[in-house]
Amino acid sequence: MIAAAAQAPPPPVLTGAQIRQARDDVVARLTFSAPLPAADANAGHRVCVSFAAGRACLHGKGARVAQRRDGAWIIVGRAPTTRHGSVVTVRARAAALRIDLGATVAWTATSDWDGAHAALAGKLRTRSAPKRHLRLLATGDSMIQVVDSILRDRLAPQHHVISEAHVSTGISKAGVFGLNWMHHAAAQARSIHPDATVVWIGPNEGFPIAGASCCGPAWIKGYAGRARSMMRSYRRGGRAVVYWLTLPIPRSDRLARVLRAVNRAIVRAAQGAGSGVRVIDMRKVFTPHDRFQQRACYRGHCFDARQPDGIHLSIAGARVAADIIARRLRADGVIRG
After folding, report:
1. CB 11 within 8 A of CB 114
2. Are strands 160-165 and 135-140 parallel, antiparallel or unpaired?
3. Could you tell me if residue 8 is inside a domain?
4. CATH of the domain at 83
5. DSSP annotation of 39
6. 67-86 pLDDT per residue, tens
7. pTM, 2 dp
């Protein structure tokens, strides 16, 4: 007598979806026919809640948030999820989903799992969220100067910008002379309690780190470790977000070599610091070809972008930098209005 082969259980299917607003977040409660394993779109497992220009899709045990830009979906962050039996709940910022609160928006919830497809649709009537008073720390060296003042003027009075620039300091200088930025970042987080921190620092770098001279792999690794320590301090245990700006390439070839290494280290540091740390790439506007240029163009307007030293931004450049930062804060839902 031959025993019958055990049949695989049917794939989980989406059976219900409830979408609601919680302050300035959108919460999706998804019910399935069976407990849902970790999702992997590459393995034929895709579950998404989609709006006109934003969506949240399950990925692993969490979710990714993406925005539609120029016809393509671009991942912009992550969203927390909770699981209870066959119910998965996803919570994402409405701004990250590109939802204008106060409007009625259409949504679709879909699941594709091992060939089993289900789709549900509905509308969510949102209400304008109460205004949030944000404490934003703008810090770094001389690069953040002027930019911080423009940010303060633009975001006041709803938001409070604390400016703290330390001229001629550098992360690689710690242990050599001057300010120890790792210790200082922890002290800033404890004393200021920022909800968001914007960091721009770098022209004074190039000092050896743990015996490694600039600007090889060992130096980049060491710098990234120091920057990541600062990022984690500013994150305040997940209660705050961090925006770290890359550096436009300067005129000096010697300094350009240093700042290219710093930029690589910034990206590397952020990759290991969690979803609350974001890099704003200022090179795209000010030095898009990875080499110095005196003039830059932004949103259809070209202008003289650099000071005579070939390092710092002009007043016009600082205004553009502040606008880039403010737009990113709004796009991520950190500030509104």
Report:
1. yes
2. parallel
3. no
4. 2.60.40
5. B
6. 988 888 999 888 999 999 99
7. 0.68
